[in-house]
Amino acid sequence: MNSSKPLYSQIQDYIVQQIENGYWPENHQIPPEREIADQFRVSRITAKNAMLGLVNEGVLYRHRGKGTFVAARNPDIQIREATAPYVTALQPRKKIIGFIMPWMEFHYSSLLISGVEAALGQLSYHFLFKRITDREEESKAIQAFLDIPVDGIIIVASQGEQNFNDDVVRLVLNKHHVVLVERTMRDIRTNGVYCNTKEIGMLMVDYLYKQKAKQIGLITYPSLYTIGVSDRINSFQSALVQKGLEPLPEQNILSISPRILEELNRDEIPPEIMEFLHMNNKLDAIATVDALLAQYAGMACIKLGLTHMKIICCDQPLFHPDCLFPVAYIDQSPFEIGTIAAKMMADSIENKADTRKHMISPRLVEISPNRR
User: Is the Cβ–Cβ distance between 190 and 184 less than 8 Å?
Assistant: First the structure.
């Protein structure tokens, strides 16, 4: 593989080469995500994003329950050369929207992407997706989209509100069509849609307080990973104080890098979480900033025999057979956020609409015992 290119782009190069060389003809079923991930030694999330990108470009198509297949070639569509860094297999005369997003828990990100894709599809827009890991990749993704060029860019938060990438600010100041997701600019007018993450901590603490949980732990990502994560941590601590409780001490908080989770198999438990819960086995409850961390915490609780633990998380948890299931979760409506972002973008392009911000309130969903 060409190590100078993003992993997902290298996978796309390989798939395009197989098609162009005639190894994979029209309607040929390509290997599943698991095999692609194993072949390239990447996470299944990376493999899925690569394949999803080619589906969005019309190079591949999905058949629910059967797999992913090579799409019929349209003479009006030019498939990129394998050396190109980004897919340009786009039908003419349709507007193109770029979508940039850092790594996020898979189910949440899938719903967010699906919301954007569904709304843009209805509006006859094309959709290009780029996942990033840091500020440098964010800048490269922006430049690549401008080189295509795209008609607008939707950008999901990757840094705090006070620390925007200069390239993002430049896009806005140069009057490009931009929609920010999960963050806003305080002093510059731009389109934005976000969940009120400052309410999430209060909802979590209020629920745990009613459940009479006194000793609470928090498993999170670093506070600077996204503004949403920072808000959840701060609002959780503030809510504890408002309830007359002490804010969580340092030993009750585990901050874990998303990079560690990307390379784990579904049944692996991060050793940091195992050690944290082993050292804090007297806790009554655990709050996590997303559903994936809740799943790992639940798996660790089963391994350690901590079946008394109450787990609450952000986003709808996914079932795992060897997992202590959360008692409740906070719904941030990612599909709705994606849909609103796409429609906001189209309104900006088609109607030259004024910039605006749309805030969604989170809601707590209690999970009944027979569903756990």
Answer: yes
Per the CB < 8 A criterion, the answer to whether 100 and 141 are in contact is yes
CB 171 within 8 A of CB 142: yes
If phi > 0 it is left, if psi is from -120 to 50 it is alpha, else beta; for residue 31 that is beta
Comparing CA positions, the residue from 157, 162, 164, 86 lying closest to residue 126 is: 86
Q: Which positions ≥6 away from 199 have C-beta within 8 Å?
A: 235, 361, 362
Output the six-digit token pair for 49.
Answer: 């994003």
How far is it, in rounded angstroms, from Cα 185 to Cα 229? 17
Asked whether the predicted pLDDT for residue 105 surpasses 90, the reply is no
The band of 82, judged by pLDDT with boundaries at 50, 70 and 90, is very low
Q: How far is CA 79 from the centre of its chain?
A: 27
Claim: this prediction has a pTM higher than 0.85: no
Question: What DSSP line would sit under 81-92, residue for residue?
Answer: PTTSSS-----T
User: What gap in Å lies between CA 317 and CA 315, rounded to an integer?
Assistant: 6
